[in-house]
């Protein structure tokens, strides 16, 4: 499961406001959707993805991931590279590894599939050793 970060957003790291206990917007109903449209920040939120690998059937997994919009800005400066950037992405702060068994795997394929579940998220630098960071331009 890879994170895809671009500018101010990370996807599988999806994040918005948590007016609650750090567990995201679960169970917040229609008002939560309205709050999410206005939210700037990073929080844990429920997310579903399809886990798959060659030789096994896919399995839909619902887990916690990071989601949000973080403050990003640039300003021109006189010295090279002629721009000062402050770019943060919504990313994992604390995770827990979870392993599930994929269904219908070939005899030669290990059915174990491990992914990171978000426990805490924050606005931070995109770390290329753990996150796929995409820049445009």
UniProtKB/TrEMBL annotation:
<protein>
    <recommendedName>
        <fullName>Glycoprotein hormone beta-5</fullName>
    </recommendedName>
</protein>
<keyword id="KW-0372">Hormone</keyword>
<comment type="subunit">
    <text>Heterodimer with GPHA2; this heterodimer interacts with thyroid-stimulating hormone receptor (TSHR), and hence stimulates cAMP production.</text>
</comment>
<dbReference type="InterPro" id="IPR001545">
    <property type="entry name" value="Gonadotropin_bsu"/>
</dbReference>
<comment type="function">
    <text>Functions as a heterodimeric glycoprotein hormone with GPHA2 able to bind and activate the thyroid-stimulating hormone receptor (TSHR), leading to increased cAMP production. Plays a central role in controlling thyroid cell metabolism.</text>
</comment>
<keyword id="KW-0325">Glycoprotein</keyword>
<dbReference type="GO" id="GO:0007186">
    <property type="term" value="P:G protein-coupled receptor signaling pathway"/>
</dbReference>
<dbReference type="InterPro" id="IPR029034">
    <property type="entry name" value="Cystine-knot_cytokine"/>
</dbReference>
<dbReference type="GO" id="GO:0005179">
    <property type="term" value="F:hormone activity"/>
</dbReference>
<dbReference type="GO" id="GO:0005737">
    <property type="term" value="C:cytoplasm"/>
</dbReference>
<feature type="domain" description="Glycoprotein hormone subunit beta">
    <location>
        <begin position="41"/>
        <end position="134"/>
    </location>
</feature>
<dbReference type="GO" id="GO:0005615">
    <property type="term" value="C:extracellular space"/>
</dbReference>
<dbReference type="Pfam" id="PF00007">
    <property type="entry name" value="Cys_knot"/>
</dbReference>
<comment type="similarity">
    <text>Belongs to the glycoprotein hormones subunit beta family.</text>
</comment>
<keyword id="KW-0964">Secreted</keyword>
<feature type="signal peptide">
    <location>
        <begin position="1"/>
        <end position="22"/>
    </location>
</feature>
<dbReference type="InterPro" id="IPR006208">
    <property type="entry name" value="Glyco_hormone_CN"/>
</dbReference>
<keyword id="KW-0732">Signal</keyword>
<keyword id="KW-1015">Disulfide bond</keyword>
<dbReference type="GO" id="GO:0002155">
    <property type="term" value="P:regulation of thyroid hormone receptor signaling pathway"/>
</dbReference>
